Amino acid sequence: MAIHRRDFLRGIVAAGGAYAFRGFVPSRAWAAKRFPAGVWGGNVPTWCHDLVRDGGRIPQVAPSRSVDFLILGGGLAGLSAAYKLRDTSMLLLEHLDRVGGHCVRDRWNDIWFAGASAYFVEPEPPLDEFYAELAFPLRQIAEPADSAILGWNSVVDVFGAGLENLPYPDAVRRDFARARKDFAAILESDDCPVMPLAETSEASKQYDSMSFADWMLHEKKYHPAVKAYVDLYCRSAFGAPGSENLSAFAGLNFYVSEFGARYTFPGGNALAAELLRDAIHAAGSGRILSATTAVQVEDRGGKVIVTAIDPHGEPIAIEAGAVLVACPKYVAKHIVKGLPQDQIAAMDGLAYGSYVVANVLCTSPVTDGSYDTWTDVAPFTDVLIADWITREEGNQPSSKHQVLTVYYPTGYEIDSLLDDDAYDRYRDTVVRHLDYLYPGAEAKIEDVKLYRWGHALCHASPGWYTRTSPLAARPFGRVLFAHSDNQGLPAFEAALVEGISAAAQAKALLAP
Asked: What three-state secondary structure class fits 444?
């Protein structure tokens, strides 16, 4: 399947990035309102930091269990691989106490909200059949899907009906119109850049010779305001500080898909992970071990030995005929022993952006303009209305309450997420700026639930996608790699495709 969009997760002053000069880290100024003490959701490093990143001593123990297929990582890629292998001798290890990775959701007053991954695009083969097999209850996002607050001016449907309302001179508006035409044309073109790499055209590979910023400013010569607006998306969808940090191949792959139909579930993409998990459980008990962290993978010829730390902090070892490493490459390169240097270098070519997602629980509606609102006058990039997808005909709110999901990418800044007062600072910054955007909002906010993602979204610079990506994903003996970052794209679809593909490779590897 050709993948060309994001998953997870999103005035002229913005041309340089309205908040670039302030950085992505919130100040220590508090919101006027006091809130209950919060506990972070999202990533928990556990043994990944102590034994893997920091090179701690890994205990050596004899294998206590043997399976044909062992999957490391319970995100969408690992779950889709496990689903395809569910009727075999299979085991999945997940370091968190739940599966789903970035696909997580919660509920408040009958409103489901996403902890990270938000939506996906029109399914194409083979995923259309996969979705049907699992009975995914797809819901198309109703219009208006997008709006923006640019330089304190509200604009609905920036690239469509709202073009004339953009707070820019006519010449800049014409460049927005030209960009819309170009993006839509690329989406429909046979030369739209897609992954896996084998499915893209030779002509599309030219986009990997330049950054997305260079393509917009120098190749297409758009006004910098166009680039600044697209940068909001690059921060939100890729975790990159801006389009300068991103190959045009990846940037276009994602951004042009915003000009097609988009879908989601109540609470974002988490329902897909839940349905996969339930199907795996239905095939037999004990196939998923949560709170179990793989710390070493060693191919010993005929078998692969995986050492892990169990929920009690004790080392265990499992023997497998094939191992599917469905965790990100920044982990894989540490735990898989003996990887060739060229493969490690290819993995090192990927960058990962950090992220905070804030779910703001409101006693009454704060905004009702569109599903997603982008802004260049806040340190975060966009705000989603969580119940937009569950509304009935006429787009009437399903509840007197409201949950706003705020996407707050922090670029490559991670240390601020670990500070003792980080929860309070990020929460209060979100509340303060929502009140700037929507006067009176703070009085309606009952609480804020924060999710922290340390290395959430992968991306790469020019050259990686067409020259280096095959090296990063290359099988290593009986060790296969199954993660969305095989493609260098943090996409819902990429994770599923890579998991399905790795499962097929694993079956072939062990076939008589």
From this structure: helix
Distance separating alpha carbons of residues 502 and 509, to the nearest angstrom: 10
Contacts for 29 with CB less than 8 Å, ≥ 6 apart: 428, 429, 432
- The CATH number of whichever domain residue 431 belongs to comes to 3.50.50.60
Residues 225, 186 share a domain: yes
Residue 6 within a domain: no
List pLDDT tens digits, range 299-336. Answer: 987 899 999 999 999 999 999 999 999 999 999 999 99
What is the SS3 assignment for 196-213? CHHHCCCHHHHHHHCEHH
d(CA 395, CA 33): 31
- Would you say 12 and 61 are in contact if contact means Cβ atoms under 8 Å apart? no
SS3 content of the chain, % helix, strand, coil (to 5): 35, 25, 40
What is residue 259's DSSP assignment?
A: G
Are residues 80 and 135 located together in one domain of the fold?
A: no
Signed CA dihedral, 508, 78, 465, 141: sign only: positive
Over the stretch 444-484, which tens digit does the pLDDT of each residue have? Answer: 999 999 999 998 899 999 999 999 999 999 999 999 999 99
Q: Supply 74's token pair.
A: 């319970």
Strand-pairing partners, residue 98, are none
E strands present in 6-77 = 41-42, 65-72
Distance CA(114)–CA(268), nearest Å, equals: 5
Please indicate, yes or no, if residue 406 is contained in any of the structural domains. Answer: yes
Q: How far is CA 205 from CA 195, 347, 432, in A?
A: 11, 20, 44
* 3-class SS string, 313-339: CCEEEEEEEEEEECCCHHHHHHHECCC
Report the C-alpha gap between 150 and 66 in whole angstroms: 57
* 258 lies in the same domain as 286: no
Question: What's the rounded Cα separation, in Å, for the pair 125 and 298?
Answer: 35
Residue ranges of the alpha helices (H) in 51-126?
A: 76-84
- Which residues constitute the domain of residue 75? 61-103+269-349+462-510
What is the value of pTM for the model shown? 0.92
How far, CA to CA in Å, does 498 sit from each of 15, 118, 253, 369? 36, 19, 17, 36
- Let me know if residue 4 belongs to a domain: no
Structure tokens at 482: 């199954």
C-beta of residue 366 within 8 angstroms of C-beta of residue 444: yes
Residue 481 burial (CB count, 10 A):
25
